[in-house]
Task: inverse folding
């Protein structure tokens, strides 16, 4: 593909997608860390506090049973069994004076001023650890049923150091995680935008005249691959249309060159003779050829108006059976000259609402083509019949038929299946037929096979039987 137009990196879609992917990746990693940290810290703290809660409940039960003095006596008798290496304890009287204070050996124990417990529940708070300058103590307190307050503390320095190290480790991990997120985001952005960039390169190549350029298909089945396939299909269709337009222009040039050449030759021959009769013949020839060119241009204009919805139709009730008989009568002489049997099969009345003049054009073109391409001894049948709520018209012949590859294109402007131009014509008749029927809201169908003839069928909505037909 051609080189892509350079632009500042921060203005590119790749940079924006990279930033978005990286932000999502880093935010997800941060969320997972916060969740893991919350669960870890909660589990560690809960493990410590379960044992402390159990002890405070035992003390509260003892105080309720034996009073504050009984609890004090119990603690003094049982202080040897207390895990003094792990906990610090203090018991205060109702007036706030200290009744008992226990601490690990060599440590000052809980500080003098502590929050006063309110209510029967356990209250938790952190205090500076008295045996460490930077440590923390997890302290629980509870008001006793018999009066007074009991405090129980435990050194939380190791636990908080563990959580702090966890935070430091995560902070160190986040740096490579961010780098990985940027790299992964860049790779994903490039991969996602590759089909878009290929599409841009293809458009630029086409803009420089390379009409054969196509978007490379990735082989996957996602939306971007589907976009590439649809874009390539559109380019193929455009290329086909351009080829058709070129062929149509060649046909127009050929068909206009012939009458123009004849007109010029007639004028030159007349100019070389001083004969009024020769001048008159030359003028008649020029008029005939000019009429042919005007007819071609007029038909092209009619087709364009019908296809764009600009054709003005004079819709009136009419009898299709009568129009079929009229068309057969009009071409009866031409059929007899070619030794072709032309028959009309239509039992009227068959009322429809249509433009009479345009319907005459439709039937005239279809019957003319049928007679033209039917060899001597063949037959052409023009029929009309009532089917369901419509009137169906069928023009069939026993001519040479058409190749299946030609059928989809016979309605294209100036297209001729007979490339040798053995039959004279503008190549616009069937285009006009389809355009006029399209303007009437109808479609035309073709049934044909080589050596078996052809049939053209269209259906118009039936008019109200009570409406008088023309």
Result:
């Amino acid at each position: 593909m051609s080189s892509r137009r350079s632009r500042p990196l921060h203005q590119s879609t790749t940079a924006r997608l990279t930033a978005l992917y990286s932000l999502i990746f880093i935010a997800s990693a941060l969320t997972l860390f916060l969740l893991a940290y919350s669960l870890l810290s909660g589990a560690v703290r809960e493990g410590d506090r379960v044992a402390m809660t159990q002890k405070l409940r035992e003390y509260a039960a003892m105080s309720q049973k034996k009073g504050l003095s009984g609890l004090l006596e119990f603690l003094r008798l049982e202080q040897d069994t207390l895990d003094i290496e792990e906990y610090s304890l203090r018991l205060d009287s109702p007036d706030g004076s200290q009744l008992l204070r226990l601490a690990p050996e060599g440590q000052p124990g809980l500080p003098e001023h502590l929050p006063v417990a309110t209510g029967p529940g356990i209250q938790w708070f952190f205090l500076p650890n008295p045996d460490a300058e930077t440590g923390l103590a997890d302290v629980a307190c509870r008001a006793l049923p018999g009066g007074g307050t009991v405090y129980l503390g435990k050194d939380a320095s190791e636990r908080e150091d563990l959580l702090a190290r966890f935070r430091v480790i995560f902070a160190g991990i986040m740096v490579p995680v961010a780098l990985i997120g940027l790299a992964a985001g860049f790779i994903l952005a490039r991969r996602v935008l590759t089909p878009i960039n290929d599409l841009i390169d293809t458009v630029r190549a086409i803009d420089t005249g390379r009409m054969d350029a196509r978007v490379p298909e990735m082989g996957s089945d996602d939306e971007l691959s589907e976009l590439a396939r649809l874009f390539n299909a559109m380019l193929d269709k455009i290329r086909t249309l351009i080829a058709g337009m070129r062929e149509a222009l060649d046909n127009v040039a050929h068909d206009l060159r012939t009458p123009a050449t004849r007109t010029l030759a007639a004028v030159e021959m007349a100019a070389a003779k001083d004969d009024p009769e020769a001048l008159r013949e030359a003028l008649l020839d020029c008029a005939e050829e000019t009429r042919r060119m005007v007819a071609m241009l007029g038909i092209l204009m009619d087709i364009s108006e019908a296809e764009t919805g600009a054709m003005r139709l004079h819709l009136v009730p009419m009898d299709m059976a009568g129009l079929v008989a009229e068309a057969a009568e009009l071409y009866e002489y031409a059929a007899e000259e070619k030794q072709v049997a032309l028959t009309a099969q239509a039992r009227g009345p068959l009322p429809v609402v249509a433009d009479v003049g345009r319907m005459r054009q439709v039937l005239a073109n279809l019957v003319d083509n049928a007679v033209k391409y039917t060899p001597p001894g063949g037959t052409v049948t023009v029929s009309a019949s009532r089917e369901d709520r419509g009137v169906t018209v069928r023009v069939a012949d026993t001519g040479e038929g058409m190749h299946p590859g030609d059928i989809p294109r016979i309605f294209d402007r100036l297209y001729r299946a007979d490339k040798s131009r053995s039959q004279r014509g503008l190549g616009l008749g069937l285009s006009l037929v389809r355009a006029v029927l399209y303007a009437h809201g109808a479609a035309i169908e073709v049934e044909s096979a080589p050596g078996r003839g052809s049939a053209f069928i269209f259906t118009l909505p039936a008019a109200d039987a009570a409406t008088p037909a023309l």
User: Anything to note?
Assistant: The first strand starts at residue 87 and ends at 92. The chain is about 50% helix and 15% strand. The CA atoms of residues 65 and 453 lie 117 Å apart. The chain has three domains: 14-162, 223-307, 315-461.
